[in-house]
Amino acid sequence: MSDTPSNQDLVDGLVRLLTVGQQSDDAYTGRPQKGGMGRVFGGQVLAQALQAAQATVGDGKQAHSLHAYFLRGGKEGPAIDYTIARDFDGRSFSNRRVVASQTNEDGVAKPILNLTASFQSPEEGLEHTDAPMPDVTGPDDLRPDMDIRRETVEKLGDKLGEAQRALMLRPRPIEMRTIDRLHWMNSEKKEPRAHSWFRTAAPLPDDAALHRAVITYASDFTLLGTAALPHGLSWMRGELTGASLDHTIWFHRAARADEWLLYVTDSPWSGGGRGFNRGRIFSQSGDLVASVAQEGMIRKRKGS
């Protein structure tokens, strides 16, 4: 029998990862990524924090925005604790603050992320959009990113360390198909714009809050890399150091994360060791589902 997990196994694992455990009315715990290495993926902390906040909001209210700051890099292995502050509960809107923390080797809990989320009861309202979906190649006409990753690893051979190879080839619950060549694939300088399709590799349960959490998780993919495109540099080739500093999402309408979504990113500015990136997420039918913004630390690595 093969040790490679099935797509459904991978997605079931993602659902477990994003399902936080309740410790008390306003305290939750997020489990670590199975087999995770090094620093915790920022999208995981964002999604778990959102799930914790969502669990404390009733009356059918749905998350319409979140704003987060990454304070420290989380470490893979230890669980992450999420403490909720119920700042506001009104007729139409509610607001929650979340502090994510991890206990270090000395037994001291240190905050790694602060997140504020706002929730609204569904209602009818004035509608318009001035963000048409770009006319790009559809997902059915693109190769899976994993196929390209395997070819890249084979081509680079011994130039990649074991940790890099493992990261590139690790099975993923989010399937991605990229329209453009990403920064880790080449050293050519190009305009700071990128387009990728994504969805979970297998169906998800019919839980709207979970689908928002998965979209939040996936929104941290490719975003900071957009700021690297004009410089022809790559984290995978060891030319850059970087980390997310903050992250904002506005949810415009409900969407399924197990159906193809187009992630359109651009970076209008970088400088001072930081890069600013924006993202728009569209359904395959062309509806604007969510908008994203992030600033990250991005520096050219010194020395070898």
Description:
This protein is α+β, with helices and mostly antiparallel strands. The protein has helices at 7-17, 42-54, 145-156, 162-169, 208-218; strands spanning 21-24, 27-30, 62-70, 80-89, 93-103, 109-120, 174-178, 193-200, 240-244, 246-251, 261-271, 274-283, 288-300. The chain has 5 helices and 13 strands. Strands 1, 2, 3, 4, 5, 6, 7, 8, 9, 10, 11, 12 and 13 form a 13-stranded antiparallel β-sheet that branches. The longest helix has 13 residues, at 42-54. It is globular and about 55 Å long. The model has no long low-confidence stretch (mean pLDDT 93).
Summarize the structure.
With 304 residues, this protein is an alpha+beta fold. 18% of the residues lie in helices and 36% in strands.
Topology (SSEs and partners):
Blueprint: H1 7-17, E1 21-24, E2 27-30, H2 42-54, E3 62-70, E4 80-89, E5 93-103, E6 109-120, H3 145-156, H4 162-169, E7 174-178, E8 193-200, H5 208-218, E9 240-244, E10 246-251, E11 261-271, E12 274-283, E13 288-300
Antiparallel strand pairs: 1-2, 2-4, 3-6, 3-10, 4-5, 5-6, 7-8, 8-11, 9-13, 10-13, 11-12, 12-13
Number of helices: 5
Number of DSSP E strands: 13
Q: Estimate the mean pLDDT confidence.
A: 93
Are there runs of 5+ residues with pLDDT below 50, and where?
Answer: none
Described by the principal axes of the CA atoms, the overall outline is globular
**Termini gap:** 42 Å
- The percentage of residues in β strands lies in 35-45%
Biggest β-sheet, characterized?
A: 13 strands, antiparallel
Content-based structural category: alpha+beta
Helix content: 10-25%
Radius of gyration: 19 Å
- The ordered H/E elements are HEEHEEEEHHEEHEEEEE
